[in-house]
Design brief:
mainly alpha, two-stranded antiparallel ribbon, 10 helices, 4 strands, 4% strand, elongated
Length: 215
């Protein structure tokens, strides 16, 4: 399962930039469980990250608000965007640009580049799952569900898609029954799921059941 940071070019990040992106990644979660906050104990449906990030600090390092993060993302994406002028349909470059904007909360911009990357690589389930996450954080819950279900039509066991489908159905559509179905299918069809990830899903199922009977 892909971690959205793996393909990011780290060369050239200043210590401050690296710190900020690290902090953002702790807020968002990445790869499997992208929609989980922190350790996975809580699920977030926030679509207003600027309110959360403004004014927060960690140690002596203030975390920049969203406009500052956008400037950092634009600067980091610039070399890749230049390369795309001569190779505009390169799915790897497009995905790397998307992830730069994704981890800095520029979800609308990230979605544009994920969409372009998927046009060149439509069977890439990991990309589509990240695209769906950006759509969800951007407020388009139905479109996010559509993208995940599109993957599951051809890859019905795909773990990231099943996981995120459960989160979005629960927190985005108030559909705990649909969430439970997605997560139980995830566990049933992926017996080799790493123990840590399995525990995350089991914890969420328990949390969902504790909240009341599925509708």
């Amino acid at each position: 399962m892909q971690n959205a940071l793996l393909d990011l070019p780290y060369d050239g990040w200043t210590p401050k930039q690296a710190y900020v992106l690290g902090a953002v990644c702790l807020v968002l979660g990445l790869g499997f469980g992208y929609l989980l906050r922190g350790s996975g104990a809580q699920v977030t449906a926030s679509t207003a990250p600027s309110a959360q990030m403004a004014g927060q600090t960690a140690g002596t390092h203030p975390i920049p608000i969203i406009p500052q993060m956008k400037k950092m993302a634009d600067k980091q994406a610039a070399p890749l965007l230049e390369s795309l002028k001569t190779d505009p349909n390169n799915p790897a470059f497009l995905a790397r640009v998307a992830r730069i904007y994704e981890v800095t909360h520029q979800f609308a911009t990230a979605a544009v580049y994920f969409r372009k990357s998927l046009a060149a690589d439509p069977k890439n389930a990991a990309l589509r799952s990240e695209f769906a996450s950006c759509l969800y954080y951007g407020g388009d819950t139905d479109a996010a569900i559509h993208e995940l279900e599109q993957t599951l039509q051809t890859q019905p066991k795909e773990p990231d898609s099943l996981f995120n489908l459960g989160v979005i159905r629960w927190k985005g559509k108030d559909d705990p029954k649909g969430a439970l179905q997605a997560w139980e299918k995830l566990l049933q069809t992926n017996p080799a799921l790493p123990e840590m990830k399995k525990s995350q899903v089991e914890s969420l199922i328990a949390q969902l059941k504790k909240s009341g009977p599925a509708k």
